[in-house]
Structures are given as C-alpha cells and as structure tokens.
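Re: that backbone. Tokens:
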C-alpha cells in the first residue's frame, strides 16, 4: 500500500482517498508506529500528512525517523514537509507570519513534482512555521510571498514535499501534484480499481447481524438513506427504519421523508413524534456542545423506546433487535476527535453525542467514506436522485442554527426563513453549486429597523451559503446579488420578527459550516 502517516490532521483520510482516486491502494498508519511496522506493510510509497503541531514543539507528535532510511519514496505535506526538512538537515523557523487559506504560489522550477502545473497558481495553506532552508541535496521548486521554501524534491532519494495542502480541492493542481509524486517521483503505476465497497459491506453486515433484527436511524438525508439502502440490500426485512421527528426539522420535512421512503427504497418506516421531549430537554440550554449532547442522547433514548416496542413485535417472530444503523461519515468521525491526536472541533450527534450506556451495537457502513463517495454508492444501489443529490442537513437540525435557547416560537421563525431561502436558491438554479446554505437565527440579538412607517426591533438571520466537496473545507458561495436581494426582501417581509438579513463570507477554515 501507499501509507499515509496520520499526524492528527483533519486531512489524513482525505489524502488516503486522493491516492485511492489516483488508482493506488492506500492505508493510514499512526505517526508513532515503529519503522519496523512500516516496513512490515511493504509500503510502495509513504505520505506524511499535515498536523496541528509545530516540529519545534516539545510536544510534537513522535515519529520514528528511521522510516526515512527504508528506501521508500516519501512525500511530506505541511507538518510532514517540515518534519522532513528538520530530520534531513534543513531548518524550520518559527515565523510571526501565519498563512491561512488561499495563497499565491510561484513555481521556480517544476522538477518532477510540479510537472504540468503553471508558473503561478493558488494553493491552500494552513501553517505558522516555515521551512527556512531545504536539506542540502534537495531542490527548492516553489515559494509564496511569506514562505521561501514551499516545495522541494530530491530525485535521487525519491523524496518530495510541499508546504500547502494539495489534497484539498481549493488547492489548484492538487491532484496533479499528488499523482506527480506517485507516478513521476516514486515511479509507481496505477493498479487498484475501486474495490467494491458495497459487496464488502454487505458481507460484513450479514456476518455481524445473523438472524437478529436491525433498526436504522433515518434522517431523510443522504447518509442515513444510503446506509439504510445498503443494509436493506444486505438483510432485507430484518431492517426497520425509524424516523424521529424531533421538532428541529425544516418545513414539510417529515412528510417528504415519509413519502420518499415508502415510494422509493421500500423499507419499513416508523415515525416517532418526539417534539415535546426534545424541546423540554433543550429548554434553557444555550451552549452548542451542551445542545449537541442533549440531542444526541435524546435521539438514542427515543430509538431505545422505539426499539422496545419493536422488540415486543419482533419477539413474536422470534428475533431480537440488536443493532442500530447510522449514516456516520468519515468527516463526522474526524471532527468529533475520532482520529489520533485530532482536536475536537464539535460533537456530531451521531458520534460524540452518544451516551456511554447505549444498548445497541452500531452498524456504520459509511464510516470510512466521504459524502461524494457515499453519493456514488447510493446511485449504484438505486437510491433515487432526489435523495442522493439532497443537500446535507445536520442531525441536530435547526437546534444548532438558533444561536441562543431553542424555543417553539424561534423554531417556527427560522423554519419560515429557511424555507424562503431554499426556495429562492432552488429557483435561481443554484442547488448544484451550493453545498448547503444554513440559515442561522441570532435569537439573542436585536436591531432597530423601520417597516411601514413604524419602528421594529427584531432579529437578524444569517445566510451561510457554502461551496464544498466534502465539508472538510469550504468557501462561501458567491450567490448573485439579485438572488440575495430577493431572499432578503422576502424574509424581512414574510417572517415576523426578522428585520435584517446578513451574509456570512467566511471560508472553512477558519469558520465551520454550521454556526454551532
Ligand atoms: P461543520 O459545521 O462541522 O459542518 O463545518 C460540516 C458538515 O456537517 C454537518 N453537520 C452535522 N451533520 N450531525 C450531522 O449529521 C451533526 O451533528 C452535524 N453537525 C454539522 C454540517 O451541516 C455540514 O454539512
């Protein structure tokens, strides 16, 4: 395999996936694995990922530098690039200058690594320290205004590195550069066709489940729908889907999910009305992580209650319910601190919010995948396009889009504003370009306005249209002014209590997509 060394970056799995896309099998390995463990895996190349630490820190993640002596072609990215520099005789300097986001790169010489890329282009940076001097036998290939050594290679050793993140889509020519490393610098040949995730998962699910029954936490979104379709394909009628109406849904969402499901995938669907329960548990709560934990906990409790009912039914048929299917994706796992040494950004309700005393075993067939991979699998499974192309909506729903306490009144205000924004974006034909557009209610903020000759003292909503490939990074979508204007007019006219519409123009990083 091509080994991707995980230094606790949000990006390690993304790198592994880009390598899979290039047609080579790749696996992740922990940064502190001894060189012998690397060697035992017979790596054909090694990629050192980025990470949150500085190589000059005492607490920098451990790495067995004997890995550099294995004779395996190696590429360093960001932190990995700096680690290569210090270990192989270069120098990394603490700089005052931090580069975050899109940065112009100037290529001095392409070498093999930057072949077929132009003299200058934009790359995605996220670092504080910089390589001040490359190791002696390395050629410096490129620079940025603040980083004199932004890329280097050593053809003799088949080593290369870049300061930026070629694996994120916002880096131009990123895939080209990774492939240049694999095919030009390392001299590998593509030999791995997309192994059938579906068949593999179906076998696995059948083995684990046996004759037991399974329930699926269905949200109506892409992830849980594809997970349900996959499990349904594996075990058919042993699966029952449970849809919880937690009261944090968008307008008409429940009805839509019910029709979609009955009509298309054909699985058994039970809807549970838990609106009162969620609202009363959330009463008085303003802290985002607290909200997420409560919603995660109540989800599970609701399922347990639903399952208890289903168990009674199932007992008649002789099989208990032992498993819960969730459409957890890799970004959910990483951002809930699932990777080693990864910072906990927020607790996604389907991972970090789970209580410890959960009584189901989890089936998470999409846990290693990204959204676009899941969509491809969904299409393969025959899940209708209306579901597969749906924009993401977070499990905690509108609960994490009300900044402040969640109340019934605030929910209905936000629900209305959200419906208008989505309606107009769809009418403008922007659904394909926009990954999702959260509408956020700043419930504890008021501002003065004027409407119909009278003073208003209402709340602002924030429009957060973002473009992204996998939600790991995102940029704000340049929605045409005319469309924004219509949305703003309609929301301020049609929704009581909203007298201002503002636009969020922050990329991720540094912002996350949702506000909470
Ligand atoms: P953030 O806000 O972390 O969002 O940049 C990344 C993507 O994940 C969605 N999201 C969630 N999805 N449960 C989910 O199923 C959650 O708790 C959750 N929180 C955020 C968000 O809408 C975006 O698509």
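Recovered sequence:
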């Amino acid at each position: 395999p091509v080994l991707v060394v995980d230094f606790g970056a949000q990006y390690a799995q993304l790198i592994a996936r880009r390598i899979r896309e290039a047609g080579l099998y790749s696996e992740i390995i922990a940064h502190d694995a001894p060189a012998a463990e690397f060697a035992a895996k017979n790596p054909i190349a090694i990629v050192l990922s980025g990470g949150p630490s500085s190589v000059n820190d005492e607490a920098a993640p451990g790495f067995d530098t004997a890995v550099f002596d294995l004779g395996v072609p190696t590429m360093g990215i960001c932190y990995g690039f700096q680690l290569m520099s210090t270990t192989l005789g270069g120098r990394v300097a603490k700089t005052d200058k931090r580069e975050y986001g899109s940065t112009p790169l100037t290529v001095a010489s392409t070498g093999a690594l930057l072949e077929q890329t132009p003299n200058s282009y934009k790359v995605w940076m996220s670092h504080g320290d910089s390589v001040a001097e490359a190791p002696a036998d390395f050629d410096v290939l490129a620079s940025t205004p603040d980083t004199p050594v932004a890329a280097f290679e050593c053809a003799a050793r088949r080593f290369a590195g870049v300061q930026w993140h070629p694996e994120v889509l916002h880096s131009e020519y990123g895939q080209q550069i990774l492939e240049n490393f694999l095919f030009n610098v390392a001299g590998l040949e593509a030999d791995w066709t997309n192994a059938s995730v579906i068949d593999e998962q179906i076998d696995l699910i059948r083995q684990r489940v046996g004759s037991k029954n399974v329930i699926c936490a269905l949200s109506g979104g892409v992830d849980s729908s594809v997970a349900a379709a996959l499990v349904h394909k594996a075990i058919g009628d042993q699966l029952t889907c449970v849809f919880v109406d937690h009261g944090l849904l968008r307008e008409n969402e429940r009805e839509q999910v019910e029709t979609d499901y009955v009509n298309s995938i054909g699985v058994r669907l039970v809807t549970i009305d838990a609106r009162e329960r969620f609202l009363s548990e959330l009463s008085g709560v303003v802290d985002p992580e607290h909200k997420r934990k409560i919603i995660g906990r109540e989800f599970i409790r609701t399922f347990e209650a639903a399952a208890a009912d289903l168990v009674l039914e199932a007992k008649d048929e002789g099989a208990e319910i032992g498993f819960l299917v969730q459409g957890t994706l890799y970004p959910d796992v990483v951002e809930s601190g699932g990777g080693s040494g990864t910072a906990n950004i927020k607790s996604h309700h389907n991972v970090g919010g789970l209580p410890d005393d959960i009584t189901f075993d989890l089936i998470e067939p999409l846990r290693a995948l990204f959204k676009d991979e899941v969509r491809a699998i969904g299409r393969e499974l025959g899940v209708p396009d209306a579901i597969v192309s749906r924009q993401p909506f977070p499990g905690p729903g509108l609960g994490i889009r009300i900044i402040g306490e969640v109340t019934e009144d605030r929910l209905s205000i936000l629900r209305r504003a959200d419906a208008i924004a989505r309606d107009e974006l769809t009418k403008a034909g922007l659904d394909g370009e926009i990954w999702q557009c959260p509408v956020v209610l700043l419930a504890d903020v008021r501002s003065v306005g004027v409407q119909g000759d009278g003073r208003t003292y209402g709340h602002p909503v924030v429009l957060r249209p973002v473009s992204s490939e996998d939600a790991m990074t995102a940029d704000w979508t340049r929605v045409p002014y005319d469309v924004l204007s219509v949305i703003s007019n309609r929301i301020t006219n049609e929704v009581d209590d909203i007298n201002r519409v503002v636009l969020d123009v922050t990329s991720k990083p540094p912002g996350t997509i949702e506000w909470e």
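The chain is about 35% helix and 25% strand. Confidence is low (pLDDT under 50) at residues 337-342.
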